[in-house]
Amino acid sequence: MVNVEHILQSVQSGIMDITEAKRLLEQAQQEAVAQRIDDSLGYAQLDVDRAARTGFPEVIFGEGKSAEQIAAIFERLMAQTDTVLATRVSPEKAEHVLRQVPAAEYRADARALLWSRPGTAAPAGDGYIAVVCAGTSDVPVAEEAAVTAEAMGRRVERVFDVGVAGIHRLFRRLPLIRGASAVVVAAGMEGALASVLGGLVSVPVIAVPTSIGYGASFQGVAASLSMLNACAPGISVVNIDNGFGAGYNAALIYKNRLKRDEQ
Asked: What pTM, to 2 d.p., does this model score?
């Protein structure tokens, strides 16, 4: 265990230089964070200091967990953090959780449960993230991205059903999309929308292949490969149907842009 008082005394007396002291103090911080694990539930070890390290608390992945487990973890995180997000929660599980945690809100389109402590700061800055999807069938994945970014304190503009089959629908919304700090694009079928937008905007594009499509789409594999092989630069690709990952990345990009603007 690092002794912080000893480090400060060593710097004061000239025994230790500032560079070494900084390294040891960072080590002390990491050790302190590592100790703050809540394992009292037995089936889960809650990383209650994740927000201090990464800027956002641990998120509950609802698939594979029972409604009782989700509710218990949700309540425990509410006591430790200002925001709790649970993804991939079915309506049936959500109904049970809301009986136990009535303060939470269920976003049905995103299959997400969300709670924020009253008085939590409003989104910072004047910017926003654009969440774009090719077709209405892609909306659940796009909404997961949007709700995630909103949970992280970012404003989101939604642009839905603008796929390449009717590309004129996209062009009329381009001014809004181009004004974003980052763009999330959810598309199934051949996943062409991400490549199209990559050549039209000057901000990072985070592509989400969805499992929407007919047989040869291979549950999103075709869209994933198309996005990975896109010729337009500036595109990053997350896993199939991973709206959460895309929304999280977009929120981080926006957060770091705010930091630069403040410097």
From this structure: 0.81
